[in-house]
Amino acid sequence: MDGLKTYEVRTYGCQMNVHDSERLSGLLEGAGYVRAAEGSDGDADVVVFNTCAVRENADNKLYGNLGRLAPMKTKRPGMQIAVGGCLAQKDRDTIVRRAPWVDVVFGTHNIGKLPVLLERARIQEEAQIEIAESLEAFPSTLPTRRESAYAAWVSISVGCNNTCTFCIVPALRGKEKDRRTGDILAEIEALVAEGVSEITLLGQNVNAYGSDIGDREAFSKLLRACGKIEGLERVRFTSPHPRDFTDDVIAAMAETPNVMPQLHMPMQSGSDTILKAMRRSYRQERFLGIIEKVRAAMPDAAISTDIIVGFPGETEEDFEQTMHAVREARFANAFTFQYSKRPGTPAAEMEGQIPKEVVQERYMRLSVLQEEISWEENKKQVGRTLEIMVAEGEGRKDGATHRLSGRAPDNRLVHFTKPDEDVRPGDVVTVEISYAAPHHLLAEGAPLAVRRTRAGDAWEKRNAAEAAKPAGVMLGLPGIGAPAPLPATADPGCGCD
């Protein structure tokens, strides 16, 4: 295995997969691989697909991409292809049968084995399929290559105890397993010491945290503990479930200054009949009651949601209940999905599958309504003075418009006039909002203040280190054994929370 060895990780699906991909990248770099250049499009020594099984055509997408790599692999001796994630956990042997040029198949529970499996496949010259049925190591104990120098995911649990009829994730990621609070806080403190100023607590059902130990207030206690970490400026979390969204969580959000006034709460449907068919353990009144309590405690909170349109058996009356709930909740934005069969879920076998043209028509009506509400809610921000954390890659037109982009405390996207002084991702700029569009805000005047931060320093240091890296390195065999411990558009979630 002499010479330059590069890798590419392609990620599909939710934030949990994005987080896992950072771990996969960290594992490969720890084993001696170098990240391939942007736009390499499969021109790497190792290509890893981190798959999602939520969408109906997920397997078609995977096999199409694998098919495109087959001739490249033939022309490139030593190239390896690995497939992991939820689809790998579900399909197992099928992947190698349909794409025999794949070298490694691994599941959601054993991502830490990837370097070993790649080396074993190289030595034995045959595909390695290893799917663990239960978690071998909590992902956050593995090495990582974070995509951002100033913001980080922190996983607090894996798996899910719910049985929503449209979701296959519990079958693939297993029952909920919570991480020790001390380990979570230690990771956050280590990240802050590296310059991270914003963290997002991540879980399939994040606010059910504590179910392992029978502490129903464990999540609110965790939020309050995050508030005591010096240097941690912003705390977010995703995705909660209405069933577990208790008053102590609302109080912790409102009373902990660095917990941001933002909530992504998947509703899925506004119809009690459909919610029951989905096996969602709340009804419209309960959901809207939570929204009302959140707004009473945090009047400026931006609330977003997930909605599935056209679930089996959905009548026009059911759909109108969803429209009613959207009008009442006044979401800042909503991620709306046309129902599609998820293979292996109970809903895929239900009677009353809705014709595609009906689903499409309802989806368009809902989209128009939510667009109107998003714009109206954004217009309320005009004239407000907000602190914006400068982001990297959020504004695709920033170069042409001479603007920068970032996120407000409530996670709204803000484009603002570039200040005269140097500003880096992770720094904080104070601006006055002058214009609102449905999906972003503008601050067209000169920034009122610029605060250089440790997060900006971390971004600058990281970029300087990346620029100083040699074009290539000579490598021996990747290291085998236990990795050293640690010191995100795509879907907002699996649509299962």
Keywords:
497 residues; alpha/beta; seven-stranded mixed sheet; six-stranded parallel sheet; 15 helices; 21 strands; 34% helix; globular
Can you walk me through this structure?
The protein is α/β, with parallel strands linked by helices. The chain has 15 helices and 21 strands. A seven-stranded mixed β-sheet has the order 19-20-17-16-15-18-21. The protein has a six-stranded parallel β-sheet with strand order 2-1-3-4-5-6, with helices on both faces. The chain is globular, with a radius of gyration of 23 Å. The two termini are about 45 Å apart.
How is this fold's topology laid out?
Layout: E1 6-11, H1 15-30, E2 34-35, E3 46-51, H2 58-75, E4 80-85, H3 86-91, H4 93-98, E5 104-106, H5 114-124, E6 128-130, E7 151-155, E8 157-158, H6 169-173, E9 177-178, H7 181-193, E10 198-202, H8 218-226, E11 234-238, H9 247-255, E12 262-264, H10 272-277, H11 284-297, E13 302-309, H12 316-329, E14 333-338, H13 356-379, E15 385-390, H14 398-401, E16 403-407, E17 413-417, E18 428-432, E19 435-436, E20 441-443, E21 449-451, H15 454-468
Parallel strand pairs: 1-2, 1-3, 3-4, 4-5, 5-6, 7-10, 10-11, 12-13, 13-14, 17-20
Antiparallel strand pairs: 8-9, 15-16, 15-18, 16-17, 18-21, 19-20
Helix pairs in contact: 8-9, 12-13
